[in-house]
Amino acid sequence: MTIIKTIQIILCIAAAFLPQLAQGFSDSTSCIPVKTVKDSELAFGHGESASFVLHYEWGAINSDVGNAHVRLDSLTFNGQKAYQCTMHGRTTRLYDLFFKVREDFSSVFTRDGLRPLKFYRHSQEGDYEAKNTYMYVRTAQQPKIIADLYTSKRGQRSVEIPLTPCTFDLPTLFYFARNMDFDVIQPGKRYPMTFAIDDEVFNVYFILYGRETIKVKGLGTVKTIKFAAKLLEGEVFKGEADMMIWVTDDDNRLPVYFEAPLLVGVAKGRMSSYENLKYPFTSLIKK
Description:
By secondary structure, the chain is mainly β. It is built from three helices and 16 strands.
């Protein structure tokens, strides 16, 4: 794999936090246990934002290669109280010279229940461009996602994707997962979920490892909860490896660090700044 392709994948990981995860998981799929999906008790709220730095290590290469920014706003969508998450990722100016990547995601989901309503993705990766627009239809006898898709290779097309109660788009899955009930989840047990992107549905499962205090560059010493998202061997990832994720051990459950082994090197990401957290950042014990 070329360094250019690797940079592209790293940025995609950061922009969506959990993309390119395990495909073909055979166990029956059910939603992961969460504390609540009531708006007043969620781990996040209107105005929350965070920025992340993407890092890549392979041999003599040890550098930051991109960044991502995430923001959450409240709005009304088709008469329903909803949240809108926007995620933007890009390579740094230096790596733009080798391979320019821009990843933009937008997801609208209900404030109570965290049910996805609309999803939009726009990816520009060198000469390649892709767009996804999803509308979630739950009133029909068979719930479905109506997807309008465009790629610079295949052009415009429309497809229907099966929709289950535990199928999310990437941003909604990210926020849903932040409400995991770690007091109920059993360490080492697999908790599967599914997400859709392009015209495919992917399966991913989470594994809880426990609590750990770590140092995050530019942020400080943080008490965290460590868990994994399972990655299966493929074009990018190395063997049946785990993407390790550390989230704050407080009511915010905000991801502050991750590591993902690639076929060539290791991708890492760290939170660099944050604003308007719903709860005090009590897990940050030393700056």
